[in-house]
Amino acid sequence: MYRKIIEYLESWKESKYRKPLILQGARQVGKTYSILEFGRIHYENVAYFNFETSPKLNETFEEDISPDYLVPILSHIAGQTIIREKTLIVFDEVQLCERALTSLKYFCEDAPDYHIIAAGSLLGVAVNRKSFSFPVGKVDMKTLYPLDIEEFMLALGEEELVERIRNCFSTNTPMPSALHDIAIQLYRQYLVVGGMPECVTQFVETKDYILIRHTQDTILESYLNDMSKYNNLNEIKKTRLVYNNITVQLSRKNTRFQYKLVKKGGRASELENAIEWLTLSGIVSQIYRVEQIKKPLENYRNIDAFKIYVSDLGLLCAKKNLAPNDILYMVDELNDFKGGMAENYVEVQLSINGYKTYYWESERGAEIDFIIQRGYKIIPIEVKAADNTKAKSLRVYMETFKPAYAIKVSAKNFGFEDGKKIVPLYAVFCI
């Protein structure tokens, strides 16, 4: 299965400024598979160490974490010689051994010729609760997300369709209507299946939505277990409350996160730690409202006004217990949820492409779903779940701030009109 992360890893390997790499992301997004596949292709051998399945590994790092001490021992444990530049060293579930995390500093300083990648499902949380120093400035860091819709299409053998989508995006030329309809259906399938590699593999091989939903339920259960395993006892209940409530908030016309909807009388002081845990673990993303459209946008965010989206669309639909056919045919009963689901989808694709997203709201209630900086320009993005693209809020924004152009994402075909770039939902990966 093609993953874009491989191209990043290839660049990392060849960089003269290469440092030990930390690859983080939510559980089961494919970190281990991607690293091992990369190692198999580009190195003579891979020395793989998993701190979850081999807890005794921790003892190796208790006394001395210098490369001179560690490498011979690790070679013995792996049963193969670790050779500079020819062996890929992999520390998996590294959040379970903070001393191993700290050792990356010394590999960077004293033995930079060793190629080493550390992976962790809850690394953000572990970093926040460290007992030993984090190797700040001594590591490269990269986040792996679930498959985006382009990777999903490629997994289904739609290379020619992907190429045509990219061409239409760059030229603002409408897709042939038959291909547009096929791509819209693929988008809906992506909403059901999501981007978790195991689910995508099952869809490619079986098209069995019942099997996929079972896998999604298992992943959701593993997230709940993580909340109990890695979280403070006092925060477990609050974290689950927040996580279970996200789909409720996405069903509202105003998808801004409201504490009072989590529990009666809920306040920021009570729930903010739970939200931070979910964000750091990669299970959700949090985007803030910007008060002014100026660079840098981060300077003008309102920390008290934000939205929360989940990291995978398939898990969102599973958590909501939505019937696959209801999504595939976009039945009217889903009308209250369609907008929030489309927003969540766009946020996932933009995050995968490396954008820091915000949203904007006027004093009179006009709202733009996403504000991004694309190149040197601040660009508004309006999202509609269907092909009805009337957007009063976008008109208000454009009259107020006069952006170079705006992006309207909907089920409508490609085009460009009145300073607005029309992008079909299936083509958001091109932004």
UniProtKB/TrEMBL annotation:
Instruction: Tell whether Nucleotide-binding is among the UniProt keywords.
Output: yes
Q: Report domain AAA positions.
A: 18-153
Q: Which Pfam families match?
A: AAA_14, DUF4143
Q: Where is the DUF4143 domain?
A: 225-385
Q: Name any one GO molecular function.
A: ATP binding
The answer, when asked if ATP-binding is one of the entry's keywords, is yes
Taxonomically, which superkingdom? Bacteria
Identify the InterPro entries for this entry: AAA_14 (IPR041682), DUF4143 (IPR025420), P-loop_NTPase (IPR027417)
Enumerate the UniProt keywords alphabetically. ATP-binding, Nucleotide-binding
Which PANTHER family does the entry link to?
A: ATPASE
Return the protein name: ATP-binding protein
Per the UniProt record, the source organism is: Ohessyouella blattaphilus
